[in-house]
Amino acid sequence: VDIVNWDPAEDTSMGILARLQPNPGIGATDGYAFTYQGKDQDVQLSRITGEAPVSLSGSPAVTLTPGNGYRMVFFGTGSHLEGRIYDLNDLANPLITATGTDETYTQGTCGLVVFADENTRASATFDNYSAGTGTPPPLTVIVADGTTTASWDSAAGLCHTLEASNDLITWSPFYFYTAAAGRTRHSEPFDALVPTRFFRLRMGP
């Protein structure tokens, strides 16, 4: 989701909820959150139990400017959770990354959150929200002119790891990419002495 504005005078936390359990509500919300704290100027990746957060990442500091556009990305691969914030003018390099590991919630729904730690006003303006299952895009592999090229369609801000194997048993991650929007390609010389070469793409680092 993109955050495009908030009031710096408010003690506001804003961001993304994920793997929410059924029937969230006051005192009953369970899941994960990736939030930016406007007054504290930091981010937190948290496990939420009964609406109470427990930090999984500490409080990495980052200063965002109200009125500028930023993209928040929150994804999970198994127990690995990762939140990132990008300047909308540079979707290839995150301003901040927060990571954590937790196995409490394995699935659920997603959404947005704005809250204040005290009984005060809290507001934020979001744009371009999208959520998905985290399934990697289809991978295309072409051998031509002595070169093997693997390519896939990228969504801005999402991380992919391209892995290779000669036997479908042992996989080696050899290419990590934080995507900008568009078609991503990785090429390497074709080795005719290797009888079989497999590739796979997965979400996350």
What does this structure look like?
Helices cover 0% and strands 53% of the residues. With 205 residues, it is an all-beta fold. It is elongated, with a radius of gyration of 19 Å. The two termini are 20 Å apart. The mean pLDDT is 87.
List the helices and strands and how they pair.
Layout: E1 2-6, E2 12-20, E3 31-37, E4 42-49, E5 52-55, E6 70-77, E7 80-87, E8 96-101, E9 109-116, E10 124-127, E11 140-144, E12 147-154, E13 159-165, E14 172-178, E15 182-189, E16 198-203
Task: Put the structure in a nutshell.
By secondary structure, the chain is an all-beta fold.
Mean pLDDT across every amino acid position: 87
Element pattern in H and E: EEEEEEEEEEEEEEEE
Radius of gyration: 19 Å
Placed side by side, the strands forming the largest sheet appear as 8-7-6-1-10
Shape: elongated
Oligomeric description of these chains: single chain
Beta-strand content estimate: over 45%
Helical element count? 0
Overall strand count: 16
Largest sheet: 5 strands, antiparallel
Helix content: under 10%
Which stretches are poorly predicted, pLDDT < 50 over at least 5 residues?
A: none
How far apart, in Å, are the first and last alpha carbons?
Answer: 20 Å
Structural class: mainly beta
